[in-house]
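User: Design a sequence. Structure:
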């Protein structure tokens, strides 16, 4: 179950199916998969989750926090596998990564060193960067390690950080006005369910203020974001098939640790760089897994 249209996540679904086939599952032969998509209409998710539960499935696979939340509200007994979840602890889906404790497990998109690496890449793109604004939602508990890693890297690179907490969409425009007034030269957007649902507005505000920005969700790149660095969604969906296999063989979600990412993507949007009047170093382009022209 996913909040997005099928066309928007086609590559991720291909990864999931590849993972299933590698484990001996063939759709229509020894496994039946029922797909549900909200097509961007988040209010439909609760109805879709209820439909799936009525089918009495062996488990439900979700893509994203909104889908996971709807599935959790629909059942406390059917196992739920998160294919991509940025903050499973802060969202209340699991008690801990090592011992989820309920009917939900799967994969987290967060890795502790991700913040530092994102800053390193942004500094590579902007060698003169000295003042960076971080946009976040402070209620995201799992971000604490990411923040600490970002701060360590910032000290090493001589970059001054300023934090802007955005608990709701209405705080976006005031935050951008404040960070520009504070002299921010670029923006690093940390994972946040609030921010990603407003990604077009976030990207638009960065563009209107001519601020280069690094994002930690791939959807921002599709909306015109300059840089994205984060967990490979294709690989995570492939690995989600491993959880499906274990649960079908009798494993309990409460005892299956939540995995953190090992494979990362770097997306560079050259069209946005041109619009900002920025050049992208060849060294960065050579590291990119995708370049948007």
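Assistant: Done.
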């Amino acid at each position: 179950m996913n909040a997005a249209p099928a066309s928007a996540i086609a590559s991720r679904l291909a990864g999931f199916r590849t993972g299933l086939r590698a484990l001996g599952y063939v759709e229509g032969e020894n496994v039946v998969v029922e797909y549900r998509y909200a097509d961007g209409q988040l209010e439909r998710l609760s109805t879709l989750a209820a439909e799936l539960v009525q089918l009495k499935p062996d488990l439900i696979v979700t893509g994203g926090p909104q889908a996971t939340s709807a599935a959790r509200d629909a059942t406390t007994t059917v196992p739920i596998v998160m294919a991509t979840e940025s903050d499973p602890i802060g969202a209340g889906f699991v008690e801990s990564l090592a011992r989820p404790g309920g009917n939900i497990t799967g994969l987290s998109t967060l890795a502790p060193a991700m913040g530092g690496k994102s800053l390193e890449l942004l500094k590579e793109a902007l060698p003169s960067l000295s003042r960076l604004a971080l946009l976040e939602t402070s209620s995201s508990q799992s971000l604490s390690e990411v923040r600490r890693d970002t701060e360590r890297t910032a000290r090493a690179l001589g970059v001054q950080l300023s934090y802007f907490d955005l608990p709701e969409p209405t705080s976006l425009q005031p935050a951008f006005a404040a960070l520009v007034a504070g002299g921010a030269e670029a923006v690093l957007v940390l994972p946040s369910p609030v921010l990603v649902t407003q990604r077009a507005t976030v990207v638009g505000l960065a563009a209107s203020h001519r601020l280069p920005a690094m994002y930690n969700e791939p959807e921002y790149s599709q909306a015109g974001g300059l840089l994205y660095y984060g967990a490979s969604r294709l690989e995570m969906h492939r690995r989600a098939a491993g959880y499906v296999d274990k649960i079908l063989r009798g494993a309990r979600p409460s005892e299956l640790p939540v995995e953190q990412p090992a494979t990362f993507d770097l997306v560079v949007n050259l069209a946005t760089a041109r619009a900002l009047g920025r050049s992208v170093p060849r060294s960065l382009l050579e590291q990119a897994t995708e370049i948007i022209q």
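The mean pLDDT is 92. Residues 233-248 form the longest helix (16 residues).
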